Amino acid sequence: MTAAGQSTRVLFIGGIGRSGSTLLSQMLGQVPGYLAIGELDHLWSHSLRQDVECGCGKPFQDCEFWSEVGVRAFGGWDQLDLDSVQALQRRVEQTRRVPLLVAPRLAPSFRDALRSYADLLGRVYAAIGEVSGADVVVDSSKSVAPLYVRRHIPSVDLRVVQLVRDPRGVAYSWSKTVQRPEQAGHQYMAVWSPRLSSRRWMSNNLLVAALDLARVPRMRVRYEDLARDPGGTLRRILAFAGTPSAAELLGFVEGTLAELHPTHTAYGNPMRFDTGRIQIRLDEAWREKLPSRQRGTIELLTWPLRLRYGYNGPARPVGKRT
User: Fold this and answer.
1) Is the confidence at residue 4, as pLDDT, over 60?
2) The architecture CATH gives domain 8-308
3) Looking at the whole model, is its pTM more than 0.90?
4) Torsion sign, CA atoms 246, 248, 251, 257
């Protein structure tokens, strides 16, 4: 529970989309003391602008939890000038701005904008902690720039789970068309080429790992291990997050079965709406369906980190976590 003057512990899931972050976030959100909020970097653009459904099933503006967060943070969401907030976000929360996010003192005007935006986010996180009473807030924004911005929020105790998945599986997933059920009309998630997904897999993972230089606590988790041993993987994450005793509260996981209840995820993959008893399955459809030419391109572009993370061969099953 966050009280005045106390920090909010934020467990940020970093990496690249289609790596299992929604599954991990949803399971962490079932642990007492943990609150999954989805991809907070889309709060202004999708949750507030488009009134996209919260994970609880209500439109964002009708969700009692998020309404109270807005009141605690700003006296109500309607007190914000969204145009100004989004302009501020666009200025500081871009991957090309990472060098300035590392050393903002080099550009005083950027530093001032960053301080202003960090203050806004700090108020949101503090309000989330106050309203929920959670010990740990799980933010699955993944993207590098939002992660680097959160380093600059004084009231946030930041810890990072770097979630990685075989880049061939990531690329195959990004090549598929996925509809968003929570948005009006026929809205679909983005589709990336194998080259684009490979480049982003490399750059995102390298930049997440680079936070070690800033002494940001980081733990690397593989999607494949999460799918094969969800209970064991969650226990390691809970210990990393500073709540090892919470491992006794994993009764919702039995083998590869998990009982999921609705969470207040503001935005994210449509899987955030899945509830009830689910079977966690390792998705390796890429092994049969990814064209060999595309596979070769991905393997060539990602080989340094692919080997480092243990994704060695194109045919045999991925090994245990390293």
Assistant:
1) no
2) 3-Layer(aba) Sandwich (3.40)
3) yes
4) positive
